[in-house]
Every structure is written in C-alpha cells, then in structure tokens.
Amino acid sequence: EQSQGGVGLARIRKLRTAEAKAFRAARPKSEAAFGKGIAGFFGGVPMHWMNDWPTPFPIMVERARGATILDIDGIRLDDFCLGDTGSMFGHSPPPVARAIRRQADRGLTYMLPDEDTLVLGRLLSERFGLPEWQIATTATDANRFALRVARAVTGRPKILVFNGCYHGSVDETMVRLVDGKPVNRPGLAGEFRDLTRATQVVEFNDIPALEKALAGKDVACVIAEPVLTNSCMVLPDAGFHDALRRLTRKAGTLLLIDETHTISTGPGGYTRRYGLDPDLFVLGKPVAGGVPASVWGMSADLARRFRAYHKAKEPGYSGMGTTLSANPLQFAAMRATLEEVMTEANYDHMERLAKRLEAGLCAAIARHRLPWHVARVGARVEFICAEGPLRNGGEAEAAHAPALEAAIHVALVNRGVLIAPFHNMMLVSPATTARQVDCLVRAFGEVAGSLAA
Ligand code: PMP
Question: Which positions make up the signal peptide (predicted)?
C-alpha cells in the first residue's frame, strides 16, 4: 500500500512526525506529568483507550467549559469531540451544573424515587413518544436490558445487527461480516463463545439480506442505529427504515432503535424527526448532560407483553439493573438536560453551525481536489477520507485510512481543534460558536492543502 485516501504514505508520515514534534514542544508540563504513563494505572491510563489517541501522549486536561478544553500547559482547544457525545451539549451546561450542585446537598444515591422522577417519566414519554421507561447508567447497559426484554417476550433466542455497528460493549452485538461470513468481531479479549450462534449480521441498507435473515422467525430483535455512526457515517437509503419496520413486523421481530449518537438530529432524535416507530428506544451518553445515565423505553404494546411475561415467569432476579442506576443525581441532571438544554432553540443553533461546518469542509476538499467526502446527521459531522456516500459497514471499513487520519488529528490539535479520535467525527454543541467552526474549517483547509500539495 503506497497511499491512503489519495495521499502518499511518505507524505503522511512526514506530516505525522512534524506534528508530533510540535505537539510535544508545546506541552512540556503535560509531558513531564504524563511521563511514561500515569503511575498506578495499567498501561499508564485509567481507561485503555486513552492510549489510542493519535497524539504522542494524551492531552492532560486542566478544565473544560462549553466547547473549550484547557490543558495543563495552558493551551486552549476548540472541542468538537465533546467526550464522543457525552458532552454533546457542551461541557458542564449551566442548568446541569446547577442541578448537580443542588443535588449534591440532598444525597447522591438511595435506590428510591424522588420528586424529579414525577416530572421525568412525563418528560421522557412526551419527548420520545414511548410511554414506559427505565433508567440505567450507560447506553451499553440500556441496550443489554432492552435486548433481554426482547428475548423474554418473544421467546426467541437470536438478535440481528448491522455490519460495522457499535452499541457499546454488549457482547452479543460483537459480530462482523468478514469476507461475507459472520464471525466474532476480530480483537475481542477473552470471548469464549461463538457469538454468531445467536447473532445474525447483515449489511446496513441491504433489504433482501435482512428479509432473508428474518425469515426463520427466530430473531427476537433487530438492534439498529438510525444512521450507522460508528462506521464512518452511513446514511440510510430512502425507504430503508420503512422496509426495516415492515419486515420486522412481518417476522414478529422487535425493533430497537439506539439513538445514542443520532440524538444529534433534534430534541426527539432521529426517531421523532423521521417518524420511526420502534418497540424499544435507547439513549445514553448526553441524556444527563455528562452525568453517567441512560434511558430505555418500551412501546405500549411491548410494555403490556413484558408485564404479562413478568407475571407468568418464575419469581427471581431478572438479570437487569445495576446498583447505581436510577439515582437522584441522574434524575436531577437528566431533568435539567431535557427541560433546559435539549431545547429546540439549542438544536437550531447546533444544526445551523453544523451546516456551516459541513459546507466549509466540503469546500476545502473540493479546493484541494481530494477524493474525500463529508456526511452529517444534525449536529454531527464527519469527514471521510474516501469517496462517498458509503452504503454500509463493509464499505466504511474499507474507507478507513488510519495513518492519514491520525496525522490529520494531530495536525488539527496543533491548530487548536480537537475532533473525536478513532474516526473523524465533529459535534456542534449549543456552546459552540461560529468563530470556533471557522477556526476548524481553516485548520482543516490548511492541513488538507499540505496533504494535497
Ligand atoms: N450505542 C451507540 C450507538 C454508541 O455509539 C455507543 C458508544 N459509542 C453506545 C451505545 C454505548 O455507550 P456507552 O459506552 O456509554 O455505554
């Protein structure tokens, strides 16, 4: 392989080396603090993927506010990563910070409801259109519990995922197509099961394959993002969601829509904007403004079926729930987020600036005649170093240009902007300004220019 994304490997290497050097030179304090890794942590970091950022060492944060991160060397970054969605509404949105301060005086966890829950049940139902909800702590857990319900009520063993999906570290979703064959996702640590026995996998946008996979009527649930966001960004074809709903209904299979990323679309997510009609709905990450929390909701019909199942089943542990789930800090932060942060006005701002970002990136790509493209879902924008649009996870996998992307990421950091690691995702928050968007566009144009030269 001599090139990635239309750029020669030698040029990519040269950029990466120069940018790594500049990153280091600007951060003596961070480098000294980080050393060869932070003592006491396996791999030198408290979470292993902090080592996967393309910078020579992780950015050592002093504080973050709105859409800005300040590192301990005093360098300010315009933050378009926003905790990979956890801070999609900005770092410490003021209403959420106030709610956290208030709740800090009232107890942080007690396994009991409080008056915020009286409001929250109504807010969730009105906002997302499903009538019955539960609260968990991560989107991973919400997906796990929702899938358990799906299996319980249908009595079916299997689930179906789209190739290239990510729904959190839900073991049973970790199946991929490799050379057209379903296999355990490469790289899983300690997985001892053949996950393909209970998980079917087809390509996104492939309606005939979906129909065939559901025909055996042994699939309890299809779990899907409205847009495949974890494989670059793959938009649904016109009619895909209608077909997905029609075929799942026909097969007696439930449909779980995971809105954790596509909540970038609007206050009610992609589901409300495009009138999807899921049986199960999951949202995590930003739903409490950065406080760990997730929600999962059931349609009226599914809730009724699950109640009947519950009544009939043997008494005992359901396999659902974690101790810190549905705690009052989550209630307070989630209420503030839904009432005061996830507003139409904030989303208007996010979408307007995301369009400006999209246009700016597209113009830079065209100006430098690079074979790249840009995709957007509401406030979420991604540049992809390959021709587009992509139609499925297989194409997205082939579109990845890891060395090129890493070099670009470090070059952007050196120009004052942070985007999500591992892929090229940028989020616009209510706190993001037009100036910040323009800085990103300028930085991207400069980097693209140096690669195309
Ligand atoms: N669903 C989707 C669509 C995600 O992208 C992710 C995480 N990237 C998750 C669920 C899991 O979220 P968490 O890691 O917070 O459990």
Answer: none
| Residue type at 419 in one-letter notation | I
Instruction: Give the DSSP per-residue string, 204-247.
Output: TT-HHHHHHHHTTS-EEEEEE-SSB-SSS-BPPPTTHHHHHHHH
In whole angstroms, give the CA distance from residue 316 to residue 98. Answer: 39
Integer Cα distance of 118 and 209 in angstroms: 44
Q: Sign of the CA dihedral 24, 28, 30, 33?
A: positive
Question: Which atom of ligand 1 is closest in space to residue 141's alpha carbon?
Answer: 16
Predicted complex ipTM exceeds 0.90: yes
CA-to-CA distance for 406 and 9, rounded, in angstroms? 12
- Say whether pLDDT at 336 is over 90: yes
CA distance linking residue 306 with residue 302, whole number of Å: 6
Gap from CA of 284 to ligand 1 centroid (Å): 7
Per the CB < 8 A criterion, the answer to whether 367 and 223 are in contact is: no
Residue minimizing CA distance to atom 14 of ligand 1: 168
- Which residue, by CA, sits nearest to atom 1 of ligand 1? 167
pLDDT tens-digit readout, 142-198? 999 999 999 999 999 999 999 999 999 999 999 999 999 999 999 999 999 999 999
1 pLDDT more than 90: no
Ordered by where they begin, the domains of the chain are 3-79+344-452 (3.90.1150.10), 95-341 (3.40.640.10)
- Pocket lining for ligand 1, CB < 6 angstroms: 138-140, 166-168, 225, 230, 258, 260-261, 284-285
User: Best mutation site among 166, 223, 234, 265 for ligand 1, i.e. most ligand atoms within 8 A of its Cβ?
Assistant: 166
